[in-house]
Amino acid sequence: MDLPADSSRRALAIFTAIALTAGAYFVSFGLHRVWWPVWLAPLPLLLLAPRLRTWQVAAAALVARAIGGLGLWNYGLHVGDFSLLFCLGGVLIPAASFAVAVVLYGEFVRRGRPWLGVLAFPVTLVATEYLLSLWQGSYLSTGYTQVANLPVLQLAALAGLWGIGFAVNLFPAALASLFSEPNPFRVRMAVALLGFYACVVGYGMMRLHVTMQGSNEVRVGMVEMHGAKTELTPDEAPTMAVLQKYAAQVQPLAAQGTDFVVLPEMSALILDSESAKVDALFQKTAREAHVQVLLGILHVTAHGNFNEARLYSATGEIETMYRKHHPVPTWESKTTPGTEISILPQPVGTIGVEICRDMDYPDPARYYGQQQVGLVLVPAWDQGLNVDADWHGHLSLVRGVEDGFNMVRNARNGFLTVSDDRGRILAEQPTHTDGAMITMLSTVPVHHVATLYQQWGDWFAWVSLAALAGLLAAFWSLARA
User: Fold this and answer.
1) pLDDT tens digit string along 378-408?
2) pLDDT (tens digit, 9 = 90+) per residue, 112-131?
3) DSSP-assigned letter for residue 29
4) For FRET with 429, which of 93, 224, 331, 481 sits at 20 to 30 Å CA-CA?
5) Model-wide pTM > 0.85
6) For residues 30, 33, 36 and 37, what is the CA-based torsion angle, rounded to 10 degrees?
7) How many Å apart are CA 472 and CA 4, to the nearest integer?
8) Rounded to whole angstroms, how far apart are CA atoms 314 and 308?
9) How far apart are CA 51 and CA 42, in angstroms?
10) How far does CA 106 lie from the centroid of its chain?
11) Contact assessment for residue 402 and residue 365, using Cβ atoms and an 8 Å cutoff
């Protein structure tokens, strides 16, 4: 198919492609994601790429992907209160990467190297998404668009987010080549395409069907009452009143057979002078209820502010204290990052602790996987059921698939979630927007499943970087020929 020579009709074709691509990316990368449009989003521009001048391809792809990335713009600038430069980077860097990927595809196809073009498109996107993740986490990665697509999500156990991103982006490039190349190539590409995705879906279905037999279980209770409140006060009276309300819910949950009670991130701001009083309250609570209690607080000291999760044992001791590794750039700009992890050998299995944004990064979750942790407890804080609870609240599901553990996540102003090592949500309940107290009790498996990703880490990202270097060298050679 050739583009019409008439300039107005050519312009219409380009603008239509931009609109279709931008719309599909907007839906797949926004706060309320639909998993399937991203599989077809690049197709209109990939079909045009071999038939346009290089600058036209680059400009159209840049504009389309930038518009498609605006689904998080308002959230980042106004809800997240991130800087304008940060928000622009989150839009323009993926757009520039996409433009390079589309240009490479078009140039290889135009020069009679369609196999290289089909490979260049996903490899470029995976490589640049990985490099971008080293800056501010992996939250912009294509892999996260497939959280609800459970068979494809299982690729995370092999190759992390990067394997999922490759599978998603390979599809439109291969499909575009089927429309533009002659029959002998089409047959070979169709066979390769069917074989590859048969393996992807087959592996995913098999992994979802096979579950751990004879795993231990614990009863975990969660309590939340911050659905409509976000303020933290250093005043002792209201702070202790909030914590006493939380503590009062532990005994009723214990009466129902609870082993752990998980409270949300930053349940209160605790000055160092009041820290001992808070410990005494929850040590007494845990001891009398004979359960383990995980409390999230903002601990303000003379040496720094720490986003902490303190676990009080059933006998009243402080069993561990975890400090958040990845503070939010704006809200927690004065918070000192932690460096230690919390691994708790228990009779039912090994349990770990993380806090909220730490689950947006492959580490420290991968380290927990290497230590054969079977359950991770996560105090968290999202920004509302109609804001980011669905998006940010479910990013952490990928960590369980990557590293073979189950998860309990209690998010103030979000969801109370229990998920397994396949990314399935076992139980979930929203907080109340009026701030009313909510509790949830769930039986959670505790088992660890070994994965290739936990052993080899971001190997697929490094393979993609090496492949991109080779493809760029091949492109340079073809351009000079």
Assistant:
1) 999 999 988 999 999 999 999 999 999 999 9
2) 999 999 999 999 999 999 99
3) S
4) 331
5) yes
6) -30
7) 31
8) 19
9) 15
10) 31
11) yes
